[in-house]
Amino acid sequence: MPQAEAPRKPGLARRVIRAARSFLHPGVLLHPFRMIHYWGYSHVFPRAEMTLGRGCRIAPNASFRNGSRITLGDGVQVGETVALWAGRSSGRIIVGARTTFGPGAFVTAADYGLAAGQDLTDQPMAERDITIGAGCWIGAKAVITAGVTLGDGAVVGAGAVVTRDVPAGAIVGGVPARVLRQRT
Known about the structure:
Layout: H1 12-24, H2 26-49, E1 51-52, E2 57-58, E3 63-65, E4 70-72, E5 77-78, E6 83-85, E7 93-95, E8 100-101, E9 106-108, E10 110-112, E11 125-127, E12 130-132, E13 137-138, E14 143-144, E15 149-150, E16 155-156, E17 161-162, E18 170-173, E19 178-182
Parallel strand pairs: 1-4, 2-5, 3-6, 4-7, 5-8, 6-9, 7-12, 8-13, 9-14, 12-15, 13-16, 14-17, 16-18
Antiparallel strand pairs: 10-11, 18-19
């Protein structure tokens, strides 16, 4: 039985041409400018408008919207790819001192309407303040929706979706999040 030939590697010249086409493609050349633009409108400009307490630590790839309505207390830590999105006109996000956001957490103070017969994005947004107490821990990829208040020392488990208020010292998890137990 004849053996099948192993696939041959392209020659050096062909690999160099492929690499040159990749590096010189207009989309590749423009992408760094698009990334700088994105970083400006999603991080740099909103962060300049935020009210920050002393000693806040914010990852360089965190994302913010409507920074003038975001307040972070002393020592707040915002991890990688966290998104804090305040409402366009009224919804605020207020975070107490020493609260920590794990990677990928998402906090939004605005929800789209859900009326039937109309596209979601054409409906007015319902904006409600979010208040997160002092010393809270928001786990990786957790979601906190508009109108929620977290009491001091609350812990939100990784991947939880918080749609209701959380009492102080409670540990919540799940979708939707529910109280699993108290810390004390």
